[in-house]
Amino acid sequence: MSFDDLATDLSALAARGLRRQRRLLESAQSARVIVDGRDYVAFCSNDYLGLAADPRLIEAACNGARNAGVGAGASHLILGHTASHQRLEVALAKFVQLPGALLFSTGYMANIGAVTALVGRHDALFSDKLNHASLNDAALLSRANLKRYAHCDLGALERLLAASTAQRKLVITDAVFSMDGDLAPVPQLLDLCDRFDAWLLLDDAHGFGVLGATGGGVLEHFKVASPRIIYMATLGKAAGVAGAFVAASADVIETLIQSARTYIYTTATPPMLSDALLASLDIIARETWRRDLLSQLIMQLKTGLTGLRWQLMTSSTAIQPLIIGGNAEVMRVAAALAERGVLVPAIRPPTVPAGSARLRISLSGAHTSEDVDRLIEALHAVAKAV
Question: Does the 70-285 domain belong in CATH 3.40.640.10?
């Protein structure tokens, strides 16, 4: 392949309406942002509780930097595991009510590290077809016998588990699906894992901090607990900072420390981020009004878009996908909204299936009722004009 081939491939992407472009954020992450020199109301961020620019987190990070410096300087197993990291791991395990927790630099690294450490060539892995790319890549890298089941199809999963003769079985699924906003049927999945002696790995990137009375995520939401559960959540979304963690039994956590390559062979995250996250956990638990407000905004949006010619998918979460259909049309709609000062991301294949290009509306505790009204009015106006 030559460099000319790359240019040809890029041109083909553009012709199909699939070439992606970065926007330049010139302000702190919030509901109101400056992007490419212009003011917008943004519905793009996974900052579901509006904590990314919270002054208390900023101050905690600054204090952490003063105490421990900026960089960790080494991997966790060499000399990068600080007192701040340790305090956060203990706090996270307590927060989700599991025996232990282990920090990772990103959710992508957490999923790959956990899956590849726990299953291998002679094991079986069962994956929802709409899982996040990190789980899909983790499944392939594990070299386990991979079986994919139709989205949330419990019957299909049951048949696959019943047919498996593998000694070790692992079911992996998003807890809140990042492009559809729906929830995995966690209690029923756990029942199947109990019946067929399988582990259940839940990627709760979009539920942690948002679901449950205290923000404990999908486990608190469904009131489930089991030693079979391996729980992963990210810390750069509702928690407002960066990183991820896996929480599970003590033996699982120790296995990851010994075998998860994405944990062992990378520099630890800056300790000051752990200090900021400790402040974030306290806010998440105490300030329940943030989740209450988010619920109100979700209902306001659903009510306000009644009768719109584009259909909102069924979602009770902060992720509200509006199906547009074609790639070119979704780009036109997103551009027309931007002209009205409203920023909503257009999501196209391969992130979503062909023919289901959509606006992925992300609501946040940083939004106001007036912000949502502005989005509703803009969508109705664009629907008539485009």
Answer: yes
My answer on whether omega of the bond before 350 falls inside 30° of 0, hence cis, is: yes
Beta strands in 204-334 (DSSP E): 229-234, 244-248, 311-312, 319-325
Phi-psi region of 104 (alpha: psi -120 to 50; beta: other; left: phi over 0): beta
In the Cβ-directed half-sphere of 20, how many Cα atoms lie within 13 Å? 8
The CATH number, out of the four listed (3.30.470.10, 2.60.120.10, 3.90.1150.10, 3.40.830.10), of the domain defined by the range 20-49+288-385: 3.90.1150.10
Output the average pLDDT for the chain.
96
Q: 238, 116, 228, 94: which is closest to 176 by C-alpha? A: 238
Residues of CATH 3.90.1150.10 domain(s) within the chain? 20-49+288-385
pTM over 0.70: yes
Residues, the chain: 386
Give the separation between CA 246 and CA 266, rounded to whole angstroms.
16
Q: What is the pLDDT of residue 70?
A: 95
Strand order in the sheet with 342-343: 32-35, 38-42, 342-343
For 221-246, the pLDDT digits (tens) are: 999 999 999 999 999 999 999 999 99
Q: Could you give the 3-state DSSP secondary structure of residue 359? A: strand
Q: Read off the amino acid at residue 215.
A: G
Residues taking part in catalysis? 178, 206, 237
21: tokens are 């472009």
3-state secondary structure of 349: coil
The strand ranges marked E within 235-318 are 244-248, 311-312
Characterize the bridge pairing of strands 124-128 and 169-174.
parallel
